[in-house]
Amino acid sequence: MTLTEQVAERVAGVRTRIADAGGDPDAVTLVAVTKGFGPEVVQATLGAGVVDVAESYAQEMTGKAAAVSTAARQLAVRWHFVGRLQTNKVARLAPLVRLWQSVDRPELVHHLARRAPSARVLVQVDVSGAPGRGGCVPDDVPGLVAEARQVGLDVSGLMAVGRGGAPEGSRRGFRILRALADDLGLAERSMGMSGDLEVAVEEGSTMVRVGQALFGPRPERNPAGHAPSGGRN
Ligand SMILES: *Cc1c(COP(=O)(O)O)cnc(C)c1O
Predict the structure, then answer these.
(1) What mean pLDDT comes out for the span 76-102?
(2) How many CA atoms within 13 Å lie on the side-chain side of 90?
(3) Of 93, 73, 69, whose CA–CA distance to 81 is shortest?
(4) Is this structure's pTM higher than 0.85?
(5) Are 47 and 77 in contact (CB under 8 A)?
(6) Which atom of ligand 1 sits closest to the CA of residue 33?
(7) What domains sit in the chain, N to C, each tagged with a CATH number?
(8) What is the pLDDT of residues 3-19, one digit of tens each?
């Protein structure tokens, strides 16, 4: 079996999981999280018909994007950035990123407005109650959304990372995200990963971000923070 066939099989498996959880696999966007894997995995993903591809580290994304072949690029990859975003990385990522999923503070909003005018963004919300996952606290979301709109960003929704551990542990946070998005009239709700996508779909996810369920366990990152393969860091 080729890598592309293998990924295609896993994609079908994830779509089945979405359907089994009561979601419409055509309506829930599947974003493939390729962090930790090389450019060949991005190409296999595109070959398997998934064009939404996410990275968490700026240098890994730019290196991988450069390494992906022209042919794959013609398959119209849509890059998402889902990791902790430093303001000094915005300019370099701006030509690539189609959806900034981890916007969580005013400083970042203003950098994006300058370096990526009218960019499409999601506001990341910390609904986990566990520190260190990024995101702004729920109380700050309305203000941050308003500020982002005021500077011309296209805020299409909210994003959250679940608690990790048992999938049920993510439900309460996903409910909070859903309610916040509804209150603000935001259509996109990016929630659910390999471990908790059923719970996310049950709670109204419109976009799941899946890595390990498509590609298997991620290789360890080395202490310098570089990806083991594919990184032009
Ligand atoms: C790594 C990552 C994912 C994918 O996680 P898996 O467990 O591999 O599915 C999704 N979202 C974010 C923000 C991530 O950092």
Answers:
(1) 96
(2) 21
(3) 93
(4) yes
(5) no
(6) 4
(7) 3-215 (3.20.20.10)
(8) 999 999 999 999 999 99
Report the nearest atom of ligand 1 relative to the CA of 213. 9
DSSP state of 170: G
Separation between Cα atoms, residue 80 and residue 203, nearest integer Å: 22
Distance of CA 82 from the midpoint of ligand 1 (Å): 8
Q: How far is the CA of 54 from the centre of ligand 1 (A)?
A: 9
**Amino acid found at 28:** V
Ligand 1 atom closest to the CA of 133, numbered from 1: 13
Ligand 1: which of 208, 209, 215, 221 to mutate, most ligand atoms within 8 Å of CB?
Answer: 209
pLDDT digits (tens, 9 = 90+) for 188-225: 999 999 999 999 999 999 999 999 999 999 988 765 54
**Residue with the two structure tokens 């849509």:** 78
